[in-house]
Amino acid sequence: METPGNLFVVAAPSGAGKSSLVKALLELDSHLSVSVSHTTRKPRGQEQNGREYWFVGEPEFRSMIERGDFFEWAQVHGNLYGTSRKAIEERLMRGEDVVLEIDYQGALQIKKLFAYAVLIFILPPSWDELRQRLLRRGEDGHEVIEVRMQNAREEVAQARHFDYVIINQLFETALFDLKTVVHSQRLKYVTQCRNRSQVFAALDLL
Known about the structure:
CATH architecture: 3-Layer(aba) Sandwich
CATH topology: Rossmann fold
Order of helices and strands: EHEEEHEEHEHEHHEHHH
Shape: globular
Oligomer: single chain
Catalytic activity: GMP + ATP = GDP + ADP
Enzyme class: transferase
Number of strands: 9
Strand order of the largest sheet: 2-7-1-8-9
Keywords: ATP-binding, Cytoplasm, Kinase, Nucleotide-binding, Transferase
GO cellular component, one term: cytosol
Number of helices: 9
Strand content: 15-25%
Helix content: 40-55%
Function: Essential for recycling GMP and indirectly, cGMP.
């Protein structure tokens, strides 16, 4: 499926800084919007329904699966997450650039549906640093953190299937790298041809 807008998919193990990077990117790039996923997990801290996620019960989530409302869905850390088909299609067809912040399972599913989707994986600089970030976050107990660390090894192993890999050692450097990926995609020949068709036609490039 080809659309006027670009689709960026960002994945990372828990604690790698994915959400913080995407939030900062959105504040800097007015031409980029985030697609809010649905989840069955409970809100954390100051999270609001419709901002970080659409928080729904499992029965409602299962009904949405049966109706085909999701492009992709997966179970992560015991909770269900899904990406709305309608929300993404409408934005992309309007020519908007959309960023998805999802797990690697969903990212790989999206790539099968949108071959042109740009997959970006965020890596921690080390396992020790990832553990420290999870501890500093103060949201989970020791046992939960150990489970997240085990899952992280499986998740990191999937980075080879992504188009770009960013190591989040220094936040500002990682943010610059993320901005660079987005800007580079917008300058690709096929993207420019699609979005600046009048210029290309005037130059006899179509």
